[in-house]
Amino acid sequence: MIKKPTSPEMRVRLMCVSPPPVEHDGHITEFGLQDKKQVLHPGMRLQDGVLRFDFTITAQQKSDRAIPKFGGPFVHGPADAPFLYLGYREAQAGAAWIKRIKIPLGQITWAQVEAASAPGKLLEGAVSGQGVATVKLLGEGWVVHKAGGEI
Q1: What is the pLDDT of residues 38-78, one digit of tens each?
Q2: Do the beta carbons of residue 100 and residue 34 sit within 8 Å?
Q3: For the whole model, what pTM was predicted?
Q4: Going along 49-149, which residue ranges are E strands?
Q5: Which of 125, 112, 49, 52 is nearest to 83 (CA)?
Q6: Which residue of 57, 85, 94, 124 sits 20 to 30 Å from the alpha carbon of 39, by its own alpha carbon?
Q7: Exposed / middle / buried, residue 23 (Cβ in 10 Å: 0-12, 13-18, 19+)
Q8: For residue 36, is it within any domain?
Q9: pLDDT per residue over 1-13, tens digit each?
């Protein structure tokens, strides 16, 4: 029996500096990492007010693609232009989006995937929660680090 190769699972940490306020136009809001079912995962608020989102994604190396093919419940978009969403909306059921922040994954290299898939490592990036539409990552972009803290 031929065993199908598995897709490496990569630990990812997304930091959101200056997240949106918890109230908009007098209504309580929710903000978080959006999964494919449009559920928002709130992340962990750090002492400095930054929100930290820890999650995993998978990656497959495809010879016909310049970037890895990413998968998992938080990866949106087509294979050649994958991204993450941070969503912001009123907390009531059925509320429309106030805004969504689109974080591209296309700059992640296969070397970063392999490094971040190693035990004790993760891929980290940071964005401003004040952005709208597609945003650039802050600092050096996606960077592989030693894992610190729970994920």
Answers
A1: 999 999 999 999 999 999 999 998 766 677 899 999 999 99
A2: yes
A3: 0.90
A4: 51-60, 69-71, 83-90, 97-104, 121-128, 133-134, 143-146
A5: 125
A6: 124
A7: exposed
A8: yes
A9: 444 446 789 999 9
